[in-house]
C-alpha cells in the first residue's frame, strides 16, 4: 500500500478542491495522510485521510486579505507582506511536520502550488516526488496573475523586495534544506501540477505544457455541510460572497431590495459577520442563512450571484449554473473577467452594484438562453477533464515512475 501525503495551507478554497482526490485515492487502496489545521480537516477526514494537524502562525485568511494595499490590484507591497508571512509560517511548520512523518515518510507528496512552501521543501529534503496543487488560474511565461498588468502591479525596485529575499535565504539556511533562494524560486513553477479547472477556462490555456494537468474540479459531496431543499416551483437564485470579503450588510440589503419584486426564490448565505436581523423588508421568497450547503443549492439553482472565487465558479459550472460575478479582490476579478469573456455570465464591479444594476444583470443572464447554452458547453469540458479520477491517475503515475508499488 502506497503512502500519499497532502500538505495544504489553511484555506477553504485550497482544501475543498482536493477532497475528492483523497476519496478516490483511498478507494484505490492507498494510505492517505493530510497535513492541515484541525479547523480545515473535517472534510479530508470524511474523505478517508488521516489528519496530521499543525498549528498555523498565519492570521485568519480573511484578515490577511483585508490588509492588502488594494483589493483591485495586487501590489508589490502585498507580495512582500505575503512572502514575510510564508517565511514565518514555514519556519514554524516545517520542523513540526518533519517530526510528524519521521516514522512514516510518504512515497509522494501533493502541496499547494503557490503557498505550500513546507510541503515543497520537505519533498525535496526527503527525496520524494511531489505534485503542485493549483486551485486557481495557473501561471506560465505567457500568462500569470502577477505579471498581467490588469490585476497586479510589480515594482522591481520596491524597497522591501531585497530584504524579504534575504529573509527567505536565511530561512532556507536555518532549515538546512540544501537549496539557495535562487534555486528555490527558480523551481517554483516546475514539475507536475494538478490544476482544478478545465484547460478551456484557463487564460491562454493552449500555451501550457504537458506537466500542467487540467483535471477540473475535484470536490467531494461535503455531507457535513447540512441539508437544504427547495420547492422547485420557481427559478432559484443563490447569493454568496464566499468566506473572506463577506462582511457587507449593504450588499445583502441591495440583494433583498433587488429581488423583492421578482417571482424567483432566493437563497442568501451571508456568513458569520452579518446579522440577518439587520436586513429590512426581507420578503418570504428570500431565505437568509449564515451558511448553506452550496453544492445542494447549486443542484437546483438557475443563477448564482457570486464573488467569483474559483471554487465557487467551478462548482457553479459543474451544475450548469450561469453567474452574475461581483469580485471582491484582484484574483476574483480575473476569474470574473474570464467567465464574462467566455459568455458564462456577466460581471459587476463591487462599487457599481445598485438595486437597478443587479436586477438588470440577473434578468439579462436568466432571460438570454445563450448564457445557459455556453455554460452547458463548459460543463461538458469539465466532465471531459476527468476530475478526481484523472488527478489520481497523475499521482499514481509518479508512484510507478518512482518504483513504488501498492
TrEMBL record:
Sample GO molecular function, one term: hexosyltransferase activity
GO biological process per UniProt: antibiotic biosynthetic process
Family the UniProt entry places it in: Belongs to the UDP-glycosyltransferase family.
The protein's name in its UniProt record: Glycosyltransferase
Statement: the UniProt record of this protein carries the keyword Transferase: yes
Alphabetized UniProt keyword annotations: Transferase
Matching NCBIfam families: MGT
Domain annotation Erythromycin biosynthesis protein CIII-like C-terminal: ranges: 256-396
Lineage: Bacteria, Bacillati, Actinomycetota, Actinomycetes, Kitasatosporales
CDD domains, per the entry: GT1_Gtf-like (cd03784)
Organism per entry: Streptomyces cupreus
Origin superkingdom: Bacteria
Amino acid at each position: 500500500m502506497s503512502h500519499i501525503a497532502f500538505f495544504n495551507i489553511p484555506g477553504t478554497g485550497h482544501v475543498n478542491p482536493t477532497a475528492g482526490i483523497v476519496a478516490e485515492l483511498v478507494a484505490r487502496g492507498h494510505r492517505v495522510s493530510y497535513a492541515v489545521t484541525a479547523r480545515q480537516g473535517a472534510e479530508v477526514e470524511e474523505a478517508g485521510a488521516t489528519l496530521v494537524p499543525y498549528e498555523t502562525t498565519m492570521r485568519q485568511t480573511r484578515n490577511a486579505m483585508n490588509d492588502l494595499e488594494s483589493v483591485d490590484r495586487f501590489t508589490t507591497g502585498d507580495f512582500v507582506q505575503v512572502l514575510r508571512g510564508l517565511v514565518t509560517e514555514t519556519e514554524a511548520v516545517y520542523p513540526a511536520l518533519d517530526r510528524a512523518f519521521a516514522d512514516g515518510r510518504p512515497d509522494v507528496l501533493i502541496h499547494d502550488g503557490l503557498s505550500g512552501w513546507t510541503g515543497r521543501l520537505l519533498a525535496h529534503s526527503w527525496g520524494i516526488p511531489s505534485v503542485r496543487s493549483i486551485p486557481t488560474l495557473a501561471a506560465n511565461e505567457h500568462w500569470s496573475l502577477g505579471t498581467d498588468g490588469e490585476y497586479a502591479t510589480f515594482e522591481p525596485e520596491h524597497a522591501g523586495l531585497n530584504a524579504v529575499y534575504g529573509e527567505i535565504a536565511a530561512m532556507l539556511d536555518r532549515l538546512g534544506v540544501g537549496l539557495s533562494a535562487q534555486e528555490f524560486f527558480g523551481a517554483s513553477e516546475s514539475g507536475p501540477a494538478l490544476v482544478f479547472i478545465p484547460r478551456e477556462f484557463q487564460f491562454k490555456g493552449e500555451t501550457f505544457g504537458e506537466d500542467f494537468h487540467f483535471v477540473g474540479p475535484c470536490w467531494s459531496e461535503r455531507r457535513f455541510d447540512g441539508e437544504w431543499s427547495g420547492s422547485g416551483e420557481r427559478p432559484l437564485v443563490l447569493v454568496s460572497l464566499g468566506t473572506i470579503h463577506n462582511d457587507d450588510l449593504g450588499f445583502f440589503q441591495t440583494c433583498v431590495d433587488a429581488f423583492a419584486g421578482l417571482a424567483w426564490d432566493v437563497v442568501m448565505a451571508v456568513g458569520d459577520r452579518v446579522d440577518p436581523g439587520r436586513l429590512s423588508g426581507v420578503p418570504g421568497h428570500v431565505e437568509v442563512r449564515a451558511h448553506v450547503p452550496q453544492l445542494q443549492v447549486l443542484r437546483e439553482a438557475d443563477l448564482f450571484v457570486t464573488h467569483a472565487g474559483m471554487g465557487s465558479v467551478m462548482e457553479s459550472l459543474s451544475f450548469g449554473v450561469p453567474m452574475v460575478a461581483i469580485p471582491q479582490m484582484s484574483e476574483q476579478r480575473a476569474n470574473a473577467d474570464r467567465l464574462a469573456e467566455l459568455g458564462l455570465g456577466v460581471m459587476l464591479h463591487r462599487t457599481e452594484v445598485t438595486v437597478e444594476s443587479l436586477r438588470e444583470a440577473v434578468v439579462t443572464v436568466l432571460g438570454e438562453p445563450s448564457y445557459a447554452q455556453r455554460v452547458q458547453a463548459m460543463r461538458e469540458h469539465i466532465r471531459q477533464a476527468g476530475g478526481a479520477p484523472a488527478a489520481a491517475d497523475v499521482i499514481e503515475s509518479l508512484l510507478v515512475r518512482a518504483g513504488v508499488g501498492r
